[in-house]
Design a protein that fits this description.
The chain is an alpha+beta fold. The protein is built from ten helices and seven strands. 48% of the residues lie in helices and 18% in strands. β1 and β2 form a beta hairpin.
Length: 386
């Protein structure tokens, strides 16, 4: 059972948001290996629910020092940039402790005026009742009052009116303070992409087709159009409503090998339909990338087998914010699913992404995978069925 204060849980959640998806999934496996998370926010919730404390969570190897440092800096906490991870953890815990103390003090201060107001109102009501009793029991008509006593009563009534007016004005100010928040419009930022993405509508996964001849190319083209339209629709800048992305398009034991070159080569490996789906989703939704496949003869190759397996290789360009950032090459291994209306589900994905260098932007991306290599991928899929 986790032991977080409200402030600690919010702070840890912000730090986890700063982690990349691969570290987040690895942390989810370490903390709660038997629970699959379907989204990034769900992974964060599972990690927090299954961590013992804020300090125990922050000490995890996958919670990076730079993420804690960035969180503290953004929240105005003065720290040394050369401080070690444990020192930053101590600073974060101390910062959250101060926030908790300030919150309790503020709540107490807010409670005092309310209690004082109740006491004042009780005293006023008591004085009014006492005055009423005196009025009933006092002998002689009111006209016999002296000028001084009349002024005293008049002063009491005036004070009572002023208190009631002050109370009403306080209530009105309270309502006026709340109104702008309730009426504040919700603004959405809309992004437009000025690029042509080579994807045409294809609403369902490709159906079973007869293999051999030119229909291999049709199968590959049909799948690529369906897959990249589905993935790109998860990016808000694509300009289309997000379609039903999820683990249902992958086999339960699906694998993803992701290699990306920017300044240095980085490789990731993910296994299970949930993790593969979540990592690919983050490319479009979180990293805001758009994939433009080259479905011409030079940009795509397809190998099929009568055993109900297909291997597809496709190349294309990667875009973000209207700019072409680099190229990608992707290999899919598909196995026919007789349960899902004889559609195809993805068994493995191998994705390589490279950033442009120099004059490479003018080069049309083409598939480097040759047919013998694609046939080897096909044989791997056939072996899985045995």
């Amino acid at each position: 059972m986790s032991h977080f204060s409200f402030t600690q849980r919010n702070g840890c959640s912000e730090i986890l948001e700063l982690l990349d998806i691969s570290n987040l999934l690895a942390l989810n496996d370490t903390v709660a290996s038997k629970i699959n998370a379907w989204t990034k926010h769900e992974a964060i919730r599972v990690i927090l629910d299954h961590s013992q404390s804020a300090e125990e969570l922050l000490k995890r190897r996958k919670v990076l020092r730079k993420s804690i440092l960035k969180y503290l800096t953004e929240h105005g906490v003065t720290v040394s940039t050369s401080a070690g991870k444990q020192e930053l953890i101590d600073d974060a815990l101390q910062y959250w402790s101060k926030l908790d103390c300030n919150g309790k003090q503020l709540a107490a201060e807010r409670q005092l005026p309310v209690q004082g107001r109740k006491q004042t109102e009780g005293m006023v009501q008591k004085s009014v009742k006492d005055a009423a009793k005196k009025k009933l029991t006092s002998p002689g008509p009111i006209i016999t009052e002296t000028r001084e006593s009349g002024k005293t009563r008049q002063t009491e009534e005036q004070e009572k009116k002023e208190e009631e007016q002050a109370k009403k004005s306080d209530e009105q100010r309270g309502r006026q303070t709340d109104e702008p928040i309730l009426k504040q419009p919700h603004c959405q930022m809309k992004m437009k992409m000025n690029i042509h993405v080579n994807v045409t509508p294809c609403l369902q996964p490709p159906q079973v087709v007869t293999v051999g001849g030119s229909k291999r190319g049709n199968m590959g083209k049909q799948f690529c159009q369906w897959f990249f339209q589905l993935l790109n629709s998860q990016n808000p800048s694509f300009g289309r409503q997000a379609e039903a992305w999820g683990p249902q398009h992958f086999w339960d034991d699906a694998t993803l090998h992701l290699t990306h070159w920017v300044k240095e080569t980085q490789t990731e490996r993910h296994q299970s339909s949930a993790k593969v789906s979540l990592r690919l989703l983050s490319l479009a939704k979180d990293e805001q990338l758009l994939f433009n496949p080259n479905v011409s003869h030079s940009g795509m190759k397809c190998a099929t087998s009568p055993h109900g397996v297909v291997a597809i290789a496709v190349a294309g360009t990667v875009h973000k914010d209207g700019q072409c950032l680099g190229t990608f090459e992707q290999v899919f291994g598909l196995i026919r699913s007789g349960v899902c209306g004889n559609n195809w589900k993805i068994r493995f994905v191998k994705l390589q992404v490279k950033s442009f260098t120099g004059q490479q932007q003018n080069v049309q991306p083409s598939v480097s995978v040759q047919m013998p290599e694609l046939q080897a991928y096909l044989n791997e899929l056939i072996a899985l069925l045995k």
